[in-house]
């Protein structure tokens, strides 16, 4: 256990799980969206739904989606800031059991029309885990450089991506594949020791016609 597991993250309070964690979920979702936010519908589950309003969970999620970090003073006025920016953010509370006490589902649309659906969990101490992107099961915690592809499940994807990264001296620390079924659509998540530049992500996306999308995420 590290010192920050004891004293908690640098944040605007009051809760590391309900506020800082929520802000990080929103911030990761904003990076996955990849463009300024136009509107979002956020569904809260479990403790997020029951006590989140008092802990500022709604404000923290909104702030993160707009690109603000967990220590930003904007969290306190995030809903008002969203209105000023013309961003429509709505919330729903669900009684459904979502597999964890602190869960948020974010359905967001960017100014250029990109749409995403992201499910995230707040694990305590500001730590989070993104567990779903557009219906695909994933595991992203925002604590490592992350590269993600959406692709058709055919041979050669891993080899092509790995070869290009090796050419650019980018070291892969872990790699996981998630798919809905054999030969169907799949997601590959790669954690790297270095940040993968957006230009390289675009190059990888073009390298194989079976790759429909490639994105890179910084440490959050």
What does this molecule look like?
The protein is of the alpha+beta class and 220 residues long. Helices cover 32% and strands 35% of the residues. Strands 2-1-3-4-5-6 form a 6-stranded mixed sheet. Helix 2 (16-33) runs parallel beside helix 4 (57-65). It is globular.
Entry keywords:
220 residues, alpha+beta, six-stranded mixed β-sheet, 7 helices, 10 strands
Shape descriptor: globular
Percentage of helical residues? 25-40%
Strand arrangement, largest sheet?
2-1-3-4-5-6
Taking Cα atoms only, what radius of gyration do you get, to the nearest Å? 17 Å
Overall average pLDDT? 89
User: What is the number of helices?
Assistant: 7
E-strand count: 10
What is the H/E order?
HHEHHHEEEEEEHEEHE
- State the end-to-end CA separation: 20 Å
Largest sheet: 6 strands, mixed
Q: Roughly what fraction of the amino acids lie in strands?
A: 35-45%
Fold blueprint:
Blueprint: H1 3-7, H2 16-33, E1 37-45, H3 46-55, H4 57-65, H5 78-84, E2 88-93, E3 102-110, E4 115-124, E5 127-133, E6 136-140, E7 145-152, H6 157-167, E8 172-179, E9 185-192, H7 198-207, E10 211-217
Parallel strand pairs: 1-2
Antiparallel strand pairs: 1-3, 3-4, 4-5, 5-6, 7-9, 7-10, 8-9
Helix pairs in contact: 2-4
């Amino acid at each position: 256990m590290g010192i920050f597991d004891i004293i908690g993250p640098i944040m605007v309070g009051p809760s590391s799980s309900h506020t800082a964690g929520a802000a990080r979920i929103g911030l990761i979702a904003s990076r996955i969206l990849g463009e300024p936010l136009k509107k979002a519908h956020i569904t809260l589950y479990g403790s997020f739904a029951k006590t989140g309003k008092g802990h500022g969970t709604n404000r923290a999620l909104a702030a993160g989606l707009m690109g603000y970090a967990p220590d930003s003073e904007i969290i306190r006025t995030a809903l008002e800031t969203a209105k000023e920016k013309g961003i429509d953010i709505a919330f729903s509370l669900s009684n459904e059991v979502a597999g964890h006490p602190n869960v948020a589902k974010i359905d967001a649309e960017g100014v250029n029309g990109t749409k995403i659906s992201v499910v995230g969990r707040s694990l305590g101490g500001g730590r989070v885990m993104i567990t779903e992107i557009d219906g695909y099961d994933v595991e992203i915690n925002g604590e490592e450089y992350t590269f993600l592809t959406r692709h058709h499940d055919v041979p050669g994807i891993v080899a092509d991506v790995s070869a290009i990264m090796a050419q650019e001296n980018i070291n892969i620390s872990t790699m996981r594949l998630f798919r809905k079924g054999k030969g169907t659509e799949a997601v590959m998540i790669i954690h790297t020791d270095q940040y993968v530049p957006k230009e390289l992500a675009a190059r990888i996306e073009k390298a194989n016609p079976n790759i429909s999308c490639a994105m890179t995420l910084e440490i959050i």
